Amino acid sequence: MGTVTTTYREAIRAALRDALQRDPRVFLMGEDVGRYGGCFAVSKGLLQEFGPERIRDTPLSESAFVGAGIGAALGGMRPVVEIMTVNFSLLALDQIVNNAATILHMSGGQFSIPLVIRMTTGAGRQLAAQHSHSLEGWYAHIPGIKVLTPATLEDARGMLWTALQDPDPVLIFEHGSLYNMGGELPDDAGAVDIATASVRRPGRDVSLITYGGTLWKTLQAAAELASDGIEAEVLDLRTLRPLDTGAITASVSRTRRAVVIDEGWRSGSISAEIMARIIEQVFYELDAPVARVCSAEVPMPYAKHLEDAALPQVGTIVATARQVVRGHD
Amino acid sequence: MRPGAERNAVPDPEHARQLLHQMLRVRRFEEKCAELYATTKIRGFLHLYIGEEAVAAGVMQALRPDDRVVATYREHGHALVRGVSAAATMAEMYGKVEGCSRGRGGSMHLFDAATRFYGGNAIVGGGLPLAVGLGLADKMQGLDSITACFFGEGAVAEGEFHESLNLAALWNLPVLFCCENNLYAMGTALARSESETDLALKAASFRVPAWPVDGMDVLAVEAAARRAALAVRSGAGPLFLELRTYRFRAHSAFDPELYRDKQEVDAWKQRDPITTFLAVMQERGILADRDVAAIEADVAREIEAAVAFAEAGTLEAVADLTRFVYSEPTAE
What pTM did the predictor assign? Predict the structure, then answer.
């Protein structure tokens, strides 16, 4: 069996094409997904292949087209709704939080909503404070939806189909800095599970817990730590809701130390939730206080040096992990 | 000729009885709800539809079982006329597991898959995008079902109203937008919240045909709804009915009604959709006193049975609290 050279963007496109071919109920809708080819060129070519009924350009009406996705899911379709960025998704927050997340419960289990919403998240491209935030942790606060954060080519390729098989609303956050990431995928790459975290690098000294765009910075940090004699384990959460707490506590129980790396802000965040679960469940296993590396609490600035300073970086991850392992000098 | 301007066909006695029956069911059901609210059997918010019954009773005549309905938090009437049983609706008000939403929705969130009743939406304007999506699903599947979406005139101030009308018109979707204009968004009169108070004009700006209808006249509502549903079903795209009506009771049980004059309320009560319909039908000899008495007796029995059903209902086990957050695996 061979492999193909591909990118994160192409892997998502392949997943979309696969879903559109496999299930006539699947369609894609969002701003500029058709003629423009997708704001980040993810859906490029799909309009020509599947036509305007199934690759559906929408007006700039996030609330209406996300709500229409919910309605279409209720009506028997399997919509994939694309929102350009997580910041724009706030215009559809009413539909996501008040409808998608609640209708199954409010209806006493009568109406499920098999809807997938994809959107770009994260910083690193100098797009400033209205295109760069990482609000997936916010969404992970909401019962009734699932929150996926593919960081690898395998997950970019495989999470969509599993999400479409799910009877409930699933949000997929694609980190904008990953679209150009290249690599190899097996010829037969397909669906992956969306319920478990994955150890991307095993290690015995400290657990580096992360997801999405910061996975790669964290793996780089782990490599640097290894050259310094510290064997870090890197846990990719993959799914923020439901959180694979078992994988987190298992890793921390092995390494007895943890650093959480999250591009979101720290106050009231998913990183805070992960730390709380560690403290609640494996406090007595710990050899050091749990630490974290998050974005600075500032709207994302435009200037490159300021943006870099606001984001978790390899150096900060290395320094924080080293301090957790070795304590103060 | 615009519906509402036309003379409505005189109904045959059976149809007249049916319309009266539906309006009276809603009226008496809600009077009972108000009573039960006062005795704390029903809690939460209770928004009564009393005065507006002709709208739900008239529009539902135009719908088929495979059509879909999206309603607001003032939706007892829509649910009942659509066919959700009074018993399941009352049990829902009681918060019982036998309720149409298993006691998880309450008065504002009545749902029923069997009658394709998609709620009970308590975010003003929040149901419109859903209706657009339901219409999209039907269209993409080549079905000729339509979706009737009810909302108040207060919703026209929401962005979701404008986004939804545009999308439905742009994509030529089978959605019948039913705007229940009762003049007040809670306590805010239309003229105090809208720079343009002509609602039909707003709909027309999206190229959605808009017909004003006397919402106090059940025959006018039915005639307009039938014509509108026919057009929507035939693929003509969405249509907007402005159903001019009035809420006789307070907005909810907590409303002291400081924002409108008693004279205004009294004047509208002269146009009560039930008594005016009854008067015309009796004058024309279509309904007799004994018909009315029989309908009242029938309605009273149904509501009495609904209350008994709700009283006898069970409370869901607290152990099941977190059910229905996500779908449960179905047995293969």
Answer: 0.96
